[in-house]
Design brief:
By secondary structure, this protein is an alpha/beta fold. The strands form six sheets. Strands 19-20-18-17-21-22-23 form a seven-stranded parallel β-sheet, with helices on both faces. It has a four-stranded antiparallel β-sheet with strand order 1-2-5-8, with no helix packed on it. Strands 13-12-14-15 form a four-stranded parallel β-sheet, with helices on both faces. Helix 5 packs across helix 13.
Length: 495
């Protein structure tokens, strides 16, 4: 059994597949090394003597440079490696498009066809507050509804509480309106009560117009300051929505209708070896079926952005990708913060030492197919295929943004583990088997066998039917345990 994994023939480091003590002599395939220090699982070991200033190569790409000489067999981590990244860059379009190797299998799932033609993978009843002031009222309404009515035909009843909708200015206020609009219009909801106060910045009447065309039989409004008993009126509206949802039935829907968000968090040294590459081949597979995938976490594209830019379908998409990257870098600069303050302490403990290393692993989630479109924060999907979305790397903010763009569910890879869930199903995929075994109530699917040597195509064939089951109604852990929340990107002044 292999003890070290050399990912690319050009690499001068390898990844430990288990905890390895100093003095271990390893001879396998094209590498031979005696460990000069203890190497923790998922961390890196030098395969050659590396001089001070020399690039550290992983995934066949530089992930930083050595800050001091590193002897062959020694551990490589943040103590002796530093990023090569700096500043805002200029980019040239050098397209390198790879044909998709997958064929259309004409697969389907069981979904809910909405009046406007969109499809949902859940039939849920939601309360969406226009402002945080009415969070408590909405929660009381839902609790009363659950105690008074039979709602067994509804997949879930949720209120998506937040602290915004007032005391915001400019783009900050617009971001809140966009995300709340996108949630209200999401096809995973069979009924929505938009619950307002009346005096907030996010005025209910203005917000109603902001929604554009919508099904007014399934999306209702209540302004609590305008009625004598908001609790009774809210229950009346919710009861009507529950009754209408009794008619909703799942039907066969082609996989081409599926929209999937790609996200990682609590990453480790296996993220770019197992779970993220699994999502990459799945992304290519779904695109070949005519479906849609979305990659976000812009700060975790830094260092790998040229690979994405050169996959742009055309020059227009290339220019959008350049703006995606540089606009986010300028956001850091405007707030007087370092652009490359990443990875996190948890990432470092898991074996990730620089932002390039994190980004090269992170971007593997989107496979090799062309980039078809780029979305700004709060924009909704209009183009099938692989899309890029502007959002920070923060798990809750990014997962909310993916759902708001129109994704039916989020695939979330993790090497350290996390329980959270967004307002759409949030499927956790472990990078290693020990995490899957330790946290079965968090993790939904194990990509660890890939790190243990199982072929990624074989794991993909296990993953596809599981995902179709989830799209057809099978709950993932965040749904089973009620971990459902939203987080909106906060920027600018609070009044």
């Amino acid at each position: 059994m292999q003890k070290l994994l050399k990912i690319d023939a050009r690499d001068n480091v390898a990844v430990a597949l288990s905890n390895l003590p100093a003095g271990t002599n390893i001879i396998q395939e094209d590498l031979s090394v005696t460990l000069g220090s203890d190497i923790t699982q998922a961390h890196k070991v030098a395969l050659t003597d590396i001089a001070e200033g020399e690039n550290i190569i992983k995934y066949g790409q530089p992930i930083g440079h050595a800050t001091s000489p590193i002897a062959k067999g020694k551990k490589v981590d943040e103590s002796n490696i530093k990023t090569n990244l700096e500043g805002v860059l200029e980019y040239n379009y050098s397209p390198k498009l790879t044909p998709n190797r997958f064929k259309n299998r004409n697969l389907s799932f069981k979904g809910f066809r909405r009046k406007n033609g969109e499809v949902g993978i859940r039939n849920e009843l939601w309360i969406v507050p226009t402002v945080g002031c009415v969070n408590g009222i909405g929660e009381q309404m839902l609790n009363a509804l659950k105690s008074q009515l039979n709602v067994s035909h509804i997949d879930s009843l949720e209120i998506f509480k937040h602290n915004y909708g007032c005391s915001q200015l400019g783009d900050d206020h617009e971001n809140t309106k966009k995300i709340l609009r996108d949630i209200v219009l999401h096809p995973n909801a069979g009924g929505v009560l938009v619950l307002g106060l009346g005096c907030e910045n996010n005025q209910p009447d203005v917000f109603r117009e902001f929604l554009g065309d919508f099904d007014d039989q399934r999306i209702k409004f209540l302004v609590t300051q305008d009625v004598e008993n908001e609790h009774e009126e809210g229950l009346r509206i919710l009861t009507d929505l529950v009754e209408q949802m009794t008619q909703d039935q799942r039907e066969d829907v082609p996989l081409s209708e599926l929209r999937i968000g790609l996200k990682c968090g609590g990453s480790d040294g296996f993220s770019g070896i197992s779970a993220n590459p699994l999502l990459g081949v799945f992304s290519d597979f779904l695109v070949a079926q005519g479906g849609t995938t979305v990659l976000t976490e812009v700060p975790e594209m830094f260092g790998a952005e040229t690979q994405l830019m050169n996959r742009a379908e055309n020059r227009e998409v290339f220019e959008k990708t350049v703006h995606l990257i540089n606009d986010f870098k300028n956001y850091f600069i405007e707030n007087k913060q370092p652009i490359y303050e990443n990875p996190s302490p948890g990432n470092k403990a898991g074996g990730i030492s620089t932002l390039e290393e994190k980004s090269l692993g992170c971007t593997q989630k989107c496979g090799t197919d062309k980039v078809s479109d780029v979305l700004k924060y709060g924009e909704r999907l209009t183009t099938k295929g692989l899309n890029l979305l502007s959002s920070p790397g923060n798990d809750l903010v990014a997962a909310t943004a993916l759902g708001a763009s129109g994704c039916h569910l989020v695939l979330f890879t993790t090497g350290r583990g996390t329980p959270f869930g967004s307002f759409v199903p949030t499927m956790k995929i472990s990078t290693n088997t020990p995490l899957y075994e330790k946290k079965p109530h968090w993790i939904d699917f194990n990509a660890g066998p890939i790190a243990d040597g199982k072929q990624i195509e074989d794991v993909l064939e296990d993953f596809i039917p599981y995902l179709i089951e989830v799209a057809s109604g099978k709950q993932v852990n965040n749904e089973k345990y009620g971990f459902r929340e939203i987080a909106i990107f906060k920027t600018g002044v609070t009044l």
